[in-house]
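pinned: reference chain
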Amino acid sequence: MPNFPSLTWFETTRERANADTAFRALGSADARFGVRVDGQTFAITLDAFEVARVGIATEEEAADLDFCLEMPAADWHTYLDGFASPKRRYLNDIDLTTAGGVLKGNARNRLLFARYNATIERFFQLGAAP
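pinned: its structure tokens
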């Protein structure tokens, strides 16, 4: 698996998600969200039962995303490494217990995150797998 964070990591994770029956079984999702790591934003587009696109977003493009999940690289690595641990933490928990939260977006868009949280968690789980 390529190193996180990189466009190659997100592309490989997209391929894994689109081939994963458990990912598709979570239902239809329609959101454009960002993953911000140390100043760089990766954009992920969920469309129906697949990850339609991944890419690197400019600041202007990032402003148009539905929401963004933002953490330093070290925290992202802790989150991703946690999938192999029985004490793993979920993004919602991390958001609620981190000063200022990790979820950036308005109230409506925070609801999108809540709605598609299981799909987003599965995406990252597939990316964390060896």
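why pinned: The beta strands are 29-37, 40-48, 50-57, 67-71, 103-104. Residues 7-124 form a domain with the Nonspecific Lipid-transfer Protein; Chain A fold (CATH 3.30.1050.10).
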